[in-house]
Amino acid sequence: RRKFFAFYLVCISKTSIFVLESINVVPMACLHPLKIKNRNGEYMDVPCGRCYGCLNKKRVTLTTLTKIEGMKHKFIMFITLTYAPEYLPTCTAKIHRSRNGEHSLRIRYTSPRMIKYYQTDKCASIDVESNRHYVLEEFLKPFVNEAFKLPNRGEFGILWRRDVVNFNKRLRYYINQYNSKNNRHETPYRFLFVGEYGPKRFRPHYHAVLFLEDVDIATQMSTFVAKAWKYGRIDVQLSEGGNCAKYVAGYVASNSYSPALLRFSWSKPFALHSIRFGQSPDEEAYQDCESLEYSR
């Protein structure tokens, strides 16, 4: 355990040096820190995780990990997944007043796929002020204008993490199916998925970066992606030894000024990546760890 802990510290220190040398953006401090009480009864400030400063810090971290991961692979695939109107995960938001005079914003699923999966149309209930103008300005204003084109008034699209997870499973299935038919070995790949909303119409879509070594799989990735994603348009680009960090740098912090309704746990942008993404053991760090001496 001591040996592993020392190796972990060496890796972290070298990664920190890499961050300072390779990224020009310095992570910002939290703009709206929260106060919590620790076990000793003392109050301390913790990041909120929602403001621009926190999102910028996440962006820097994810960009660094993406750079490190890209250095270890030969082929990098850039993929964009969008929704057709009939498959778009949608919700409605309506103001509800209880008997005691309290107001809440009730969110309900309207997408048949989501209602079938959850076995209900109830999504969330948000306590709001009684001022209708406040609710329209803070939550519903971006969704009632003409720019946000949906079949029914009051509907808005949201990100659905389940679609990305199932897409990744189907993609692995079709790749393994191709390998088995051609008597090939299993082709592993590393991935990074980022879900975000469009800047104007707030339409949900996903970006993916795949890292792999097999040239045959890389050249046929468009076919595999088209089979795995049936919900809309796709875009697949191949970059051999390219810098993929800039591709995902702006996605994490791009929604820091998005409507409040798209920043809850059930609707906020997210990032999914492989286990130990960008954190595989460094040979030099391992050698430094091997040279250390320990005493009981």
Major sheet strand order: 10-3-9-8-11
Low-confidence runs = 1-10, 12-25, 144-148, 283-296
Strand content: 15-25%
Q: Considering DSSP H and I runs of 4 or more, what fraction of the residues is helical?
A: 25-40%
**What is the CA–CA distance across the termini?**
13 Å
Helix-strand topology string:
HEEHEEEHEHEHEEHHEHEH
Major beta sheet, specifics? 5 strands, antiparallel
The quaternary organization reads as single chain
- Please give the number of β-strands: 11
- The whole-angstrom Rg is 23 Å
The chain-level mean pLDDT equals 76
Secondary structure class reads alpha+beta
Coarse morphology? globular
Number of helical stretches of at least 4 residues: 9
Task: Provide a quick synopsis of the model.
This protein has helices spanning about 1-20, 50-70, 110-120, 130-140, 160-180, 215-220, 220-230, 245-250, 285-290, and strands at about 35, 45, 75-80, 90-95, 105-110, 120-130, 155, 190-195, 205-210, 235-240, 270-275. The protein is α+β, with helices and mostly antiparallel strands. Strand 8 (about 190-195) and strand 9 (about 205-210) form a beta hairpin.
Would you write up a description of this structure?
The protein is built from 9 helices and 11 strands. It has helices at residues 2-22, 52-70, 112-118, 132-140, 161-181, 215-219, 221-228, 245-249, 283-290, and strands spanning 34-37, 43-46, 75-81, 90-97, 103-109, 122-128, 155-157, 190-197, 204-212, 234-240, 270-273. α5 (161-181) packs across α7 (221-228). The model is unreliable at 1-10, 12-25, 144-148 and 283-296 (pLDDT under 50).
